[in-house]
Amino acid sequence: MKQVYLDTYGCQMNVADTSRMELLLFHSGYLRTGEVEDADLVLINTCSIREKAEQKIYSLAGSLKPLKEANPDLILGVTGCLAQQEGEQMLQKMPFLDLILGPDGVENIVQAVDEVRNTNHPVVWTHFDSAKNYRIPELSNETPLHPGPSAFVNIIKGCDKFCTFCVVPFTRGREKSREAEEIEREVRLLVSRGAKEIILLGQNVNAYGKRGLDQPVPFHELLYRVASIPGVERLRFTTSHPMDFTRECIEAYRDIDVLVNHLHLPVQSGSNRVLQEMRRGHTVEEYVALIDALRAEVPDISLSTDIIVGFPEETDSEFEDTLALMERVEFSSSYMFCYSPRPDTPAQDFPDSVPLSVKSARLQRTMRLQDRLTGEQGRRFLNREVEVLVEGRTSKRGADFKGRNPQYWMVNFTGDREMIQPGDWVTVVVEEVFGHAFKGRAVSRVREGKRVDFKADAPAAIE
Ligand code: SF4
Questions:
Q1: Ligand 1 nearest-atom number relative to CA 166
Q2: What is the pTM (predicted TM-score) of this model?
Q3: Residue ranges of the domains in the chain?
Q4: CB-based contacts of 289: which residues, under 8 Å, 6+ apart?
Q5: Which CATH number fits domain 2-125: 3.30.1360.70, 3.40.50.12160, 3.30.479.30, 3.40.50.2000?
Q6: How many Å lie between the centroid of ligand 1 and the Cα of residue 94?
Q7: pLDDT tens sequence across 410-439
Q8: What residues does ligand 1 touch, defined as CB less than 6 Å away?
Q9: CATH fold group of domain 385-453
Q10: Burial tier of 102 (Cβ tally within 10 Å: 0-12, 13-18, 19+)
């Protein structure tokens, strides 16, 4: 069998696309390798959401040039959002590349590789087929290559929001939902292969059902449908937009037992002027009202968010508004970034007189505040029991296994290696908090409905 080396950057959508390419290539005779030197095909699945990610990928692709020189039969390809954004330009900058494939072409990876082999010419496929529906038939009909206790399922791709700072509508195209029946088939298959937790995935999952379906299905209805599939023991989704978060979604949190009490809801800024410039479509007050309504139904829900500091012309007081919003909502974690202009986006042309040093200082303050908020919330779990779905072994010192609790905290814990395996439900007593992670001790395990209690004096395994 030939070998393919796959490297992934960016979001979970890219991770899912890489898995899809791996499956398609497997059926065309490629086995995944972890050693780039052994590969006949190297694919870097890229991200262009921020300038830093882009620079990193260019430098990585450049570092692979000697491999190509040593082995002219090697096919070297770049896929994903940066490939979409750069297209032919990327080939001009790096003429040793054989393949440039945008996210909309992931399903054609085998044909693209064949075309390179057959013609001996580079292939650049970055067109969007707006008439094409979003279907992933191979994932709903075949065994996944690496089934795990926690599985991602794509439900929607692209985005129609066109926030002024974001490249996604340009790199991933317009919103298209996947048929609910196909999603349900994939979930049933994953559950039959051992998945316990299903994570519904998309750039904007709660816009699900509006475009690309023969019969519209609202997002909350999809939640109920997936939750009712026997064997789905935990359900999550990411990422959502406040504008699409309906009352029915809040009620779904209240009513669906397996839907976890965690929500990632990007807010980006605490200033109404900045939100308007970002074209987010809502105000700070509307965001807070949404959170309050959700907390009224699910009091212990934990909330995470995305924050951009240093958006063009952000003033000191607008930045302070962001800090005040973080305090008000008490996010358990945040993805925080300094704004960087992205190609093709309207904000790229906005005037901006705020020095980079000021933006960096704001980012540091945001991070410090989030550290404090995370610590305060983490300490509320100390000496309490949390339910963890075991993902596998951990490399963290002084712990044996890792998994997540419903509020999405990473939990590293000690436990009997003979008694615990991936996919088990384990009750862990939280003993320490580190950043957005806990360390603790397993006190019981549930597997196939049967509970085993561990003796409190059992010795912890030594690393
Ligand atoms: S909603 Fe999210 S993915 Fe869509 S344009 Fe805005 S930031 Fe980008």
A1: 8
A2: 0.90
A3: 2-125, 137-379, 385-453
A4: none
A5: 3.40.50.12160
A6: 29
A7: 999 999 999 999 999 999 999 999 999 999
A8: 159, 161-163, 166, 168-169, 203-204, 241
A9: OB fold (Dihydrolipoamide Acetyltransferase, E2P) (2.40.50)
A10: buried
